[in-house]
Amino acid sequence: MMRPTVVAILMSVIFPMLALAQTTDELKNDERTPDDVLTYGMGYGQQRFSPLTRINRNNVKRLVPAWSYSMSDNRGQEAQPLLKDGILYLTDHEKTVALDALSGKAIWKSMIEYPPDTTRVVCCGIVNRGGALFDGKLYRTILDAHVIALDIKTGKEVWRTKSADPKDGYSMTVAPLVASGVVIAGVAGAEFGHRGYLEGLDPQTGKQLWRTYTIPAPGEPGAETWPGDAGSHGGGSTWITGSYDPDLDLVFWGTGNPAPWNPVNRKGDNLYTNSILAFQPKTGKVVWHYQMTPNDPFDYDGVNELVQAELTIDGTLRKVVMQANRNGFLYVLERATGKLLAANKFVKVNWAERIDLATGRPVWTEVTKAALEGKSVQVWPHLTGGKNWHPMSYSPISKLIYLNTTSFGWDYQPLPSEEVANLKPGQPHYGIKRPFVYIFDDPDGRGHLRALDPVTGRSKWAVPFKSPNFSGTLVTAGGLVFTGRLTGEFMAVDADTGKTLWEFQTSAGIVGQPITWERDGKQYVTITNGATGPYVMRSGDPNLANVPAGGSVWTFKLFEEYSGPQRATSGN
Predict the structure, then answer these.
(1) What is the pLDDT of residues 330-382, one digit of tens each?
(2) d(C-alpha 178, C-alpha 154), whole Å
(3) How confident is the model at residue 124 (pLDDT cuts 50, 70, 90)?
(4) CA dist list (Å): 566 to 64, 86, 156, 477
(5) What share of the chain is helix, strand, coil (3-state, %, to 5)?
(6) What CATH superfamily is the domain 2-21+44-569?
(7) Cα–Cα 20 to 30 A to 226, which of 26, 79, 124, 442?
(8) Which residues make Cβ contacts (< 8 Å) with residue 16, sequence separation at least 6?
(9) Is 288 helix (H, G, I), strand (E, B) or coil?
(10) pLDDT band, residue 119 (cuts 50/70/90)
(11) E strand segments, 132-206
(12) Nearest Cα to 514, choosing from 483, 468, 486?
């Protein structure tokens, strides 16, 4: 049940000029209105680029905290904040908060109460990745596979729709996407043998308008790529938000790994797992698809963010969608058709030699061939991915991608087929020996912050870190890239060179998504901290041994604009 806990004075009294956010046109123009952040990715194209220049490479060293607000939660804080009319909206797995963006003062807080055992089928982090704003409501998902709508003025629940049942392996952590007036959400749960899907909901009532499964039913196109009834619990999660092209009226969304990881009982390509789907937002009808990792044995997933850009390729300007996949390849596809234009390695990869541009398929190495035969192998990158889910950014000025990558592999050890057979939804669907072993070439360079050419995959620069970064990146016209470290530093580097220009030690590790915005002619940068996740919990990284837990949201501004004492507010 959702219950508002802080509504001391109605928002309509405190902020009489508050607009009923947001219209379809406002969402389309989000990337061009830096005083608001209305969409996941700071624009439908998810470039996470800001045209703001007041904070730049020349003055970023004067950046100081403006305020900090405690989320009163030791779980990971992965959500991207949203901003409308000076109000910051933020989610975690158990609450939604509205904060005054200039002071950090709480306006309202709505808590979530879960049925017992809800978290039993949450694989890799009890988290939430954010909300969506539209027509005076904030839409979000919750762990027990519901989508809810809150009134942004009060935090009161407007509607709640049950999407699936956790006992069948489903959970929801995704930030919804509002496209063409439809609320679109996806599910997590491949590690518990669900059948993945996307669905569209009516923003006023929560009524389901359509559902598109990522695993085809018997007789549907693609069903022949699943033997027997393997597709009934085949995975294909959709737990990272897609991007939207309003001109084409197409949504681009990544799908996750097949289940179980061990492919012994699911021979074939296993469509539409590890794929990019382009679909119509009003109907859910798939227009094109592209599969990155057919018959994936390594949990390489395919849900990573899909960034839109215009790139010159072979002398022709192309409207593209890009993904830095966990499998270590950077893919560039034509938005309208799904034609593969480029696919290059951006980290150490040994499971495939290359991607054949004519067929779009990977050319497997002996490593993958052996794994598909049930043999143990050493694989690069690790199942965590050459890049995990934490979003990259793209600058239309430099024409470069900025992202955090990992630098380690793992030992893949499949279980015998008889131990993998007859798994049921709601049971763990791994089929390999655990815990997983991390293999490091360089313990002092477990990850890098990189600037990549999206067409070639080559790094213009790469900065090593003793522990990998699992934070999103933000790039600005001021020549800065912002990101965070698992050891708690929030930092800004020069977008041209990678040189660290500023960093601030926050109170916990960072796995959040930075945003920047302006108010009254001043620029601010906001980030959450508080880190959990598979690497933090299971890697044994000695650099993280003394990093405290506990999540907060931090907002920074230039010292020369600073007035009044620093203040910290509690989420209690």
Answers:
(1) 999 999 999 999 999 999 999 999 999 999 999 999 999 999 999 999 999 99
(2) 21
(3) confident
(4) 9, 19, 31, 28
(5) 10, 40, 50
(6) Quinoprotein alcohol dehydrogenase-like superfamily (2.140.10.10)
(7) 124
(8) none
(9) strand
(10) confident
(11) 132-134, 137-142, 146-151, 157-162, 177-179, 182-186, 197-201
(12) 483
d(CA 270, CA 259): 10
Interacting residues of 147 by C-beta distance below 8 A, sequence separation 6+: 139, 140, 141, 160, 161, 163, 172, 176, 183, 185, 201, 206
Q: Which amino acid makes up residue 324?
A: A
Amino acid occupying residue 408: F
Reading the block at residue 458, the tokens are 């080559």
Domain positions in the chain are 2-21+44-569
* CA end-to-end span of the chain: 19
Catalytic annotation present for 85: no
Give the three-state DSSP class for 461. Answer: strand
Bridge partners, 435 (sequence order): none
Contact 510, 490 (CB under 8 A): yes
Q: For residue 225, give Cα distances in angstroms to 216, 221, 269, 275, 288.
A: 9, 9, 5, 14, 17
Cis peptide bond N-terminal to 22, omega within 30: yes
| DSSP-derived pairing of the beta strands 49-50 and 474-476 | parallel
> CB under 8 Å to 228, separation ≥6 — which residues?
265
Q: Let me know: does 473 contact 483? Beta carbons within 8 Å.
A: yes
| Length of the chain, in residues | 572
Residue 60 · residue 501 · CB < 8 Å? yes
Candidate list 73, 144, 245, 299, residue with the active-site label = 299
- The β-bridge relationship of strands 362-364 and 352-355 is antiparallel
What is the phi/psi pair of residue 305, to 5°? Answer: -55, 150
Separation of alpha carbons 507 and 44, rounded Å: 32
